[in-house]
Each structure stands twice: as structure tokens, then as C-alpha cells.
Amino acid sequence: MIVPRGRLLWGAGFTLVPLSLAPVAAQALLPPLAGLAALLLSVVLLDALLSAGRDRGIAGEFPEKVSLSRGREGHLEFALRDGRGRPLALRVGLGLPPGLESPRAEERVLLPAGGESLRLRWPLESSRRGAFDIERCHVCIPSPLGFWERQGTLSAGIRVEVHTDLLSEQRKLAALFLHRGEAGLHPQRQLGQGREFEKLRE
Description:
Elements: E1 2-4, H1 6-25, H2 30-50, E2 58-61, E3 65-69, E4 74-82, E5 88-94, E6 107-111, E7 118-124, E8 130-142, E9 148-163, H3 166-178
Parallel strand pairs: 3-9
Antiparallel strand pairs: 1-9, 2-4, 4-7, 5-6, 5-8, 8-9
Helix pairs in contact: 1-2
């Protein structure tokens, strides 16, 4: 799917708005503004044609399973590459299901030339236990002139298993055993007790 970018919206605004006002304000400006609008339309259409197929050749390497601890931030590592061997700038985002969160909504990356893989480390976190599936990885690639953006998806197929945080549970258990309600008491040596000679009182 192809969607317009801000550059296209700004260009259309600076061209079409004066063109619509020219018949009322200054008819002499109508021909040059019409020619400018026709030129912009030709460039935009050419940019859309050049953007076709820019998402082809992009492949991802995703792990089958990732384990996380509940309430603690973990990371998902995966790799992207362009099979055509060209350097390619794009935006990357993961389709997270309900129950999984990440402080990173998207990331702008540059795939290296020569078909080399670019490794990404994506932060993940969950507040509840269970198994979650990340089915898709979204990629957005700008057109050559920047008027459009082509959006595509890669099949991820990642199973994220969230387990109980054993480290936190061990700390809670240790604190429970250490708390005996006798804070501030210290053992002291008492004389006069026992059968040894040096412990007898005079």
C-alpha cells in the first residue's frame, strides 16, 4: 500500500490553494500556476511509479520463541536485509498483541548494501504471564523523491512466553524469613549462668 507523505501535502497546499484563488484575485497568475500544478502532478505520479516494488526483496530473520520475565524489560533480537543489495532507508515497527508493550513504537534504520543483515534489538515488557504471538513486522519505505511512502509487512511468527519473575519472588521470600519482629535486639553475654567456673557470680 502506498500513502502520501508530508512533502506531497505541503506541495499540494502551496500549489492548489493559490491556483483556486487566482481566478478571483489575479487572473494573470492563472496560466503559470496551472503549469506549475501540472508539473507537480507529473512529478508526483512519476514518483509513485518509481516507488512500486521498493518493498520487494526485504526479508527478515526472526526467532521462533522469546522468553520474558513478568514486569521486567527484555529484548527481542531479529535481523533485516535487502536481497537486492542496495542501501535502503526505512521505518520498522512490530505488530504487538494486547499484553505486550514496548517503549519503542518504531525505528528508522538503514539497511546496508551488499545484502548484509542489520540486527535490531527491540525492547519488550509484559505485566502478566502467558504466551503472546507477534505475527507481523511492518516496514515503511519512502519513494525516491519523498512524496510517497510504501507500506509492507513481513511475516514474523514469534511466540513470546512471559514467566514469573523468579528473582523478585526469591527476594520477597528471603525478606519474609528475615523479618521476625525483633528488630533492634542483639545477643549479649550473660554471666552467672551455666556450670563453668568463670561464669559463676561471686
